Here is the input.
Amino acid sequence: MKQSALLRTVMRNRRLSLALGAILVIVAIFLIASGGGGEPLPTTEVKRGPFLVSIKASGDLRAANSFTLTTPRLAWGQMQINFLLPEGTTVKKGDVIVRFATSTIDKTIQDKESELNILRLELAKFRADNVVRISDLEGNLKTMELTYEQAKLQVERMKFEAEVQRKETEINLEKNRIAYEQAKQKITSQNIAEKSEERKQLLKIQQTLNDVNRAKQEKEQYTLKASMDGLVVYETNWQTGRKVSVGDSPWPGMSIVSLPDLSAMQSVCQINEVDISKVKVSQVAAVRLDAFPDREFSGNVKSVGTIGQQNDRNANIKTFEVVIDIQGADPVLKPGMTTSNEVVMATLDDTVYVPIEAVFEKDGKAVVYKMFGSSVRAQEVTTGTKNSNYIVVASGVQGGDRVALRDPAARTSENGGTQNSGQGRNL
Here is the structure.
């Protein structure tokens, strides 16, 4: 309730400011048209009522939440954009936004798949040859076994023969035993060697298969999809100095597109270091779009910067970033739009106030030129706090009084402006 009352007061004061501006324009036109001396003195009524202690600052809109799509960090060469969804398109989660050319990775996948097929064929041939080799070795082993058995029988038959003949058969038996054992060992060794070779080939096949799968997985990253609902906003390509476009070859990790979430918007403004101490988190703010001055949105201060920035190298004054959360969502709110923001620090319930233009400094004192019928005279006043348009007057005038908007001693120049004779100047 209190926040709504503050915002209504902000809007009422805005209308008063606009009305005052219109009056001043009409008076100025009249003065220019009348020319010469004796022209009517522009005046305004002293106001009494609620007074907003506020600060105004320009800013820019941005989304409170945003996701940036970047160039994937891949191992298969330079990437090139060949499709971009038009900037400003509203997308849903999962929609395709960016595609990169896949000719290089397609060739890589094709080459790796061909290499994989060759390796598999070589493995099949190796296994077939291995079957033949083992079969030959097993046949030879069988022959050696039979020859060994025959030698055993021969030794039995020569048991009662001469010593020399017996010795010959025993030597022959030992030869056949050795040959038989060697044949068995050869089969064992061959099996070990071929299993080792097969493992090598299988490992190479697996490595190539991994390359194929990794390339296929990385190819999926050549298509960038929306990870959230949002609006397509192109990022700047610092290589070209312009926004990204089809045909660009971005470096790995480079920002391509940002997706601001338009359901929650913020206005980011810079507040002068003189005023920043007055701004606090949660203070009420009014946000107006420069492109649509009739549209006003309520908000609250989200954060106040702690580090000053020097935006103008030629000026010593620093500013601090203030972020204002805008309440509600509206299709008219787009990232990058310029805003006029008014942050309300306090509301004074019952005050007397006048336009800042109506208060002058004379002889080191604050004065207004108060109207008494058709005459006017300087009236010393005590001033208080002020905002962008009005200043509080604590004493010297009352609500309903009329005061001049320029020093009566100032004379009108030939071009319609005023020249001060040194009698007084605005605060």
Summary: Residues 20-37, 412-422 have pLDDT under 50 and may be disordered. The radius of gyration is 46 Å. Residues 105-220 form one domain. Residues 32 and 416 are 5 Å apart (CA to CA).
